[in-house]
Design a protein that fits this description.
- The protein is of the alpha/beta class.
- The protein has three domains: about 280 residues, Aldolase class I (TIM Barrel); about 90 residues, Orthogonal Bundle (Recoverin, domain 1), CATH 1.10.238; about 110 residues, Alpha-isopropylmalate synthase LeuA, regulatory domain (Double Stranded RNA Binding Domain, 2-Layer Sandwich), CATH 3.30.160.
- Helices cover about 40% and strands about 20% of the residues.
- An eight-stranded parallel β-barrel has the order 2-3-4-5-6-7-8-9, surrounded by seven helices. The protein has a three-stranded antiparallel sheet with strand order 11-12-13. Strands 14-15-16 form a three-stranded antiparallel sheet.
- Strand 6, helix 6 and strand 7 form a beta-alpha-beta unit.
- The radius of gyration is 27 Å and the shape is elongated.
- The two termini are about 45 Å apart.
- About 45% of the residues are buried.
- Bound molecules: manganese (II) ion.
- The site of manganese (II) ion (MN) has 6 residues, from loops.
């Protein structure tokens, strides 16, 4: 039997260049340097950290990244203009491996209305600037901007010219997100077969998501012969953004046998990288975003929950733990069944007999009918009140947080240890009220549990708005998550933090939690 060899797809990350062009997403040079390290850990093959000529800060960021980030090729972005190329060459000078990436438009629309140049003029510039860049750098990537809207013969003419001058990577972008998968793939096939020297270069796709087709078009490009895909983390970028790194990688990971391609990305860093980029760019991730969205692995329907608890493969095509996402979090809501409830309680070390489960289920349904979701914290309180079982280690007592225009926010919090009845009141300050309450609670927890992040979402709007908080903590090298819903955003965060600490401490109390050490 012949085992087909999968094509290795090069992942070209442009989060720090095209991604940063998303409105409001700009990064400081210091942030870029930190994020570049994360992208290198994720093992992207090529990284485009900026547009050196565009600002002194971007130049400095590309220069520092070129000096310090190992194991990844660094790319300097440039218009097909000498000054841009000079800046890109200087900024990337100290990289162990580097390339210059220059671009000029190829479509009639751009030539006529933007460049105001004739086709022979544009081809001459492309040729001349490729030769110019090649004097300084062995690896030149050439982008025919708006390639997807360029006549195929015009495109082939330009590609032949730059290949002749030594460009070894040809990027054919769908700059405006207009192409359909079949025609985008076909463009690669025709250029690859039609251009003189076209069989000796690497082809690259760069897709925008205006019609929601960036990932589909990138996969079509792979079918058409592209072996490099330009992506951004979370799909950030101009307008609706670029092909999302995590979506493309997981499509190849999940369906690689059909596609015949694979990447070198370290999967279990995908989730953390996504969260970090989202935080640094202040760019929230939609709940229903594939792979990394809050709901990507949450199942509400009772039928789905039941199937999932019996065997994950019934309703999940990817294993969230492989992506570094805490074990599949089932949202408890009005569609949840007894099975899901019992399973969730068991994760906190609580065993319920059938009478207890019936009583809990009844009060759970009542709450679930009134609100969108039932948090772990509420569930544990229901367990306590319906069965008398002690389902919490710590509880929040009095909370007082001062928010407002004063420079520091102050929180005073009483934390109660339920078994011993011991109470401690702690005071702390922070730049914001959330920081203050988290610090105060942390002081009130005796065990050395590390706070590892907070996510807040708003549920509903107007008078009925509630905050949903999720807090991650780390305890003995394992991550735990607690959630809470409250009308007061600061209280939601505090209760979720306590719930996460309880999850961590309960995990070692009784029976090992089924399936995984990570509770939700
Ligand atoms: Mn772009």
């Amino acid at each position: 039997m012949i085992i087909p060899v999968k094509k290795r797809i090069q992942i070209f990350d442009t989060t720090l260049r095209d991604g940063e062009q998303a409105p409001g997403a700009s990064l400081t040079p210091e942030q870029k340097i930190i994020l570049a390290g994360k992208l290198a850990d994720l093992r992207v093959d090529v990284m485009e950290p900026g547009f050196p000529v565009s600002s002194p800060g971007d130049f400095a960021a590309v220069e520092t990244i070129s000096r310090n980030i190992q194991g990844v090729e660094i790319c300097g972005f440039a218009r097909a203009v000498k000054g841009d190329i000079d800046a890109a060459v200087r900024a990337t000078r100290d990289a162990a491996r580097r390339r210059i990436h220059l671009f000029i438009s190829s479509s009639d629309i751009h030539l006529r209305h933007q460049l105001r140049m004739s086709r022979p003029e544009v081809v001459a510039v492309a040729r001349e600037m490729t030769a110019y860049a090649r004097q300084f750098c062995d690896v030149v990537e050439f982008t025919a901007m708006d390639a997807a809207r360029t006549g195929i013969d015009d495109l082939i003419e330009m590609v032949e010219a730059v290949i002749e001058e030594g460009a070894s990577i040809i990027n054919l972008p769908d700059t405006v997100g207009y192409a359909l998968p079949q025609e985008y793939g076909e463009m690669f096939r025709r250029v690859r077969l039609g251009a003189r020297g076209g069989d000796k270069v690497i082809y690259s796709a760069h897709c925008h998501n205006d019609l929601g087709l960036a990932v589909a078009n990138s996969l079509a490009a792979i079918e058409g012969g592209a072996t490099q895909i330009e992506v951004t983390v979370n799909g950030v970028g101009e307008r609706t953004g670029n092909c999302a790194l995590e979506e493309l990688v997981m499509a190849l990971e999940t369906r690689g046998d059909s596609i015949g391609a694979e990447t070198g990305i370290v999967l279990d860093k995908l989730y953390d990288t996504s969260r970090m980029i989202s935080g640094a760019m202040h760019f929230p991730i939609a709940f229903n975003k594939p792979v990394v969205g809050r709901n990507a692995f949450q199942h509400e329907s009772g039928i789905h929950q039941d199937g999932l608890l019996k065997d994950r493969s019934t309703y999940e095509i990817m294993d969230p733990e492989r992506l570094g996402i805490p074990r599949s979090m089932i949202i408890l809501g009005k569609h949840s069944g007894r099975h899901a409830l019992k399973d969730r309680a068991a994760k906190y070390g609580i065993a319920l007999d059938s009478a207890e489960l019936d009583a809990l289920y009844e009060s759970f349904k009542e709450t679930a009918d009134r609100q969108k979701a039932v948090s772990d914290d509420e569930l544990l309180r229901m367990v306590s009140s319906t069965t008398g079982q002690q389902a919490q280690i710590y509880a929040l007592g009095e909370v007082q947080v001062l928010a407002g225009s004063a420079p520091r926010r102050v929180a005073a919090v009483t934390v109660r240890h339920l078994q011993s009845g011991a109470e401690t009141t702690q005071t702390s300050t922070g730049d914001g009220p959330l920081e203050a309450i988290i610090a105060a609670i942390g002081q009130g927890i005796a065990e050395d549990i590390r706070f590892d992040g907070l996510e807040l979402h708003s549920l509903g709007s107007g008078g009925n708005a509630q905050a949903e908080a999720a807090v991650m903590v780390e305890w003995k090298d394992t991550k735990f998550r607690g959630t809470a819903i409250h009308h007061d955003i600061v209280m939601a965060a505090g209760i979720a933090y306590i719930a996460a600490c309880n999850a961590a401490l309960l995990s070692e109390s009784e029976m090992p939690s089924p399936g995984s050490a990570v509770n939700s």
